[in-house]
Amino acid sequence: RKLRHAAPSLAARGASRRIADAANVVENHLSEFRSTDRRPSLRGPSGGFQNISLIRVRSARAGTLVRSLAPLFDDVAPLQEVADDAHAVFAEAVDDCYRKKLGFPDDVDPSGTPRTLWRRLEPLLRGFDYTIFFRQLAAAADAAPDADLFDVVAGPAAYGDVAEETRAALEAWVRDWRAEATDGAAARLNAANPKFILREWMLVDAYDAAGRGDFAPARELHDLVKTPYAEHEDLSAKYYRRAPPGALNRAGTAWMT
């Protein structure tokens, strides 16, 4: 809208229509973002977040657009306001995403405890499966006071050995998170964090089988991701697990070829 308001002053330079079109692009990006369901993605080898990627991509697009338009403006202040506004919108959405992923209710300020907890947790999760870790938080919410919280939450998600320092830090984090969690946290966690996502190694196995004429694995995965937040106990051992060792080193599966 700010770009559109600035457009008439550029009419003499023949830029009015281009600025108006650019303004529509920015506004459409923001409108689509606000209307997007901010649940975690069902994509990514380690349980990445489609909407986090969306936030970053949209923010980068807005910044690139603003920089591209700058030469058309004598006064770039309106453009800077657009960039600042977009950053604030995206940053607020990131905080709210992690509020949900950490099981906090809607009346909790996302920029308070959820943001603080996430910023402590994020650097500790290198070498862990995000999808499994966040799903296991629901088990920690209802765990006994004397439970080994690392084994409940992080153990199933760990790739390889975990340094004692990291283990202690994660145990302390889970204790602090439990102290802040409120009634109903487990249900909110399971509603916000899918148990199953389509991982590359699953897809490779499915399309390899399909290439041999066996479509059963593809149909099984299709049925699974129709309800990825459900428990699916009969399929948990097969699909609710870390990537198998071979998949972590296979070109086209662990990384792009």
* Alpha carbon gyration radius: 22 Å
How helix-rich are the residues, as a percent range?
A: 55-70%
Largest sheet: none
What is the N-to-C order of secondary-structure elements (H for helix, E for strand)?
HHHHHHHHHHHH
Average pLDDT works out at 81
Number of DSSP strand runs: 0
Describe this structure in words.
With 257 residues, the chain is an all-alpha fold. 58% of the residues lie in helices and 0% in strands. The chain has helices at residues 2-6, 16-35, 50-69, 77-101, 113-121, 130-141, 149-154, 164-180, 185-192, 200-211, 216-224, 233-239. The two termini are 42 Å apart.
Keywords summarizing the entry:
257 residues, mainly alpha, 12 helices
Write the layout of secondary structure elements.
Elements (H helix, E strand, L loop, with lengths): L1 H5 L9 H20 L14 H20 L7 H25 L11 H9 L8 H12 L7 H6 L9 H17 L4 H8 L7 H12 L4 H9 L8 H7 L18
Helix pairs in contact: 2-3, 3-4, 4-5, 5-8, 6-9, 10-11
Task: Kindly summarize this structure in a few lines.
The protein has 257 residues and is mostly helical.
